[in-house]
Amino acid sequence: MHQYLKAIGFGKIQSKKELKQLLNQVEQECTHQMVVSYSDDTDYCELQKEYGQCMGITVCGELDGEDCFEADYYFPYFEGSGITTYSEVSIERRIEKEAYVGICEDSKVGISLIFHVQNGVEYMKEKQLGFLSQEQTSVTFSGLALDGKILFPIKKSEVQVKQEQENSRNRKNLLNAARQGDPGAIETLTLDDMDIYSKVSRRLITEDVFSIVDTYFMPHGVECDVYSIMGEILAVRERENVLTKEVVYQMKLDVNELQFDICVPKSKVLGEPEIGRRFKGKIWLQGYINF
User: Fold this and answer.
1) pLDDT, tens digit (0-9, with 9 covering 90-100), for 244-291
2) Cα–Cα distance between 121 and 98 in angstroms, integer?
């Protein structure tokens, strides 16, 4: 069973029989369908069913000439809002199935972001029409979390906020220059990192790490599209899974200046989420590529 079904309110599914009944419901009562030509006598089909606002289950599989659907794989999805990043996106097929992962670099984070492509069948169709991997496009990120903690924000003066914004802009410019091979930018970044490490090490003697680190975005574990994050809550709302009646939080976060939405079960969140506070947790990163 997919681990992140719990993130959209299916926390009580325990057996394969219950899962099979749920997936059969998705196939028979789908709210969205997309089909792409796969071979001479076979199409590849994506079926989606919503189980709450912006969240649901996608089932993908082959559709033969007699309109007989055979499921290949499924995954829970959560639709994000707005545009998270504009960048070149590389798309790679997974080894064992017709699913895709996207890779993009954003100077705000400083690492390559790897995410599960929500609209893989649409990508297959666009590829047939001539879309090339590594073209510049926009991506809407979203995340599914199984649990999380709410932290208070770090108290800052107006001067500190402006100084951090200026430092962030300078760092992004240096990162972009370093990617172009500028040796001066590479040297400056190296010296800055050493300086930051020295300052943080001194402060850790008397302070807690979460009073120093405001936000972070870093890979977690062995799965390439799972990340440990902490970010400021910009918006929060409660939504209900229409089938199970389980309540989830849908939050908009600012993580290293990347803004995206996450979905997490209310019962698994420690603390009360409010705008301005911080969310800390582990997410499965998904992305919708805006072709």
Assistant:
1) 999 999 999 999 889 999 999 999 999 999 999 999 999 999 999 988
2) 9
Amino acid at 48: Q
Q: What angle do CA 247, 249, 252 make, to 5 degrees?
A: 160
Per-residue pLDDT of 114-127, as tens digits, reads 999 999 999 988 88
On the CB side of 270, CA atoms within 13 Å amount to: 7
β-pairing, 278-290 vs 112-117, is parallel
Domain boundaries, the chain: 3-78, 85-138, 155-212
The predicted-structure confidence for 76-122, as pLDDT tens digits, reads as follows: 999 999 888 888 888 999 988 889 999 988 777 778 899 999 999 99
| Helix (H), strand (E) at residue 264 | strand 258-265
**Locate tokens 């990340």: which residue?**
227
- Cβ atoms of 139 and 84 within 8 Å: the answer is yes
Q: Residues 6 or more apart from 254 whose CB is under 8 A from it?
A: 215, 231, 232, 234
Nearest to 103 by CA among 116, 92, 90: 90
pTM for the model = 0.88
